[in-house]
Specification:
about 140 residues; mainly alpha; about 70% helix; globular
């Protein structure tokens, strides 16, 4: 398995565990802004670059042209999905509330929206990377 594919599986595992724990906490105590502290587990994704460091230190080539092409396609897919979701949500709000609506948003909701945007990009990139490596 390639280093980038291992990193993508790690990201999927972190997202899966985080969403599972968030769902369990929400089911147990109900929706509360304090539940969002479970989402800090996603900061484990910052350790993704450490996967494959030992191979790099041993002097092995861990990337080639194909790997860079796959990572580029995964990046395009991640941000493409983010823009699709963002524009879809904006158009849905416009259709439901109308053009003259005023929306008040709490601070913790903005934090969750920014985190969700990062999650959409990271999750889409990981899934795209795995699919492209498996497809060959």
């Amino acid at each position: 398995m390639n280093v980038h594919e291992k990193q993508a599986w790690f990201v999927l595992a972190v997202f899966g565990v985080t969403i599972f724990l968030y769902g369990m906490l929400t089911a147990i105590i109900g929706f509360h802004p304090a539940n969002s502290f479970v989402l800090f587990l996603m900061f484990l994704c910052f350790f993704v670059p450490l996967i494959g460091r030992s191979e790099k230190k041993q002097g092995k080539a861990i990337t080639d042209e194909r790997d860079r092409e796959i990572l580029k396609k995964a990046c395009w897919a991640g941000f493409g999905v983010l823009w699709f979701v963002f524009l879809s949500c904006m158009m849905l709000l416009l259709a439901i509330l109308g053009p003259d609506a005023i929306i008040n948003v709490k601070g913790w909701a903005i934090m969750l929206l920014v985190g969700a945007a990062g999650g959409i990009v990271g999750l889409t990139q990981a899934i795209t990377t795995i699919i492209l490596y498996r497809r060959g």
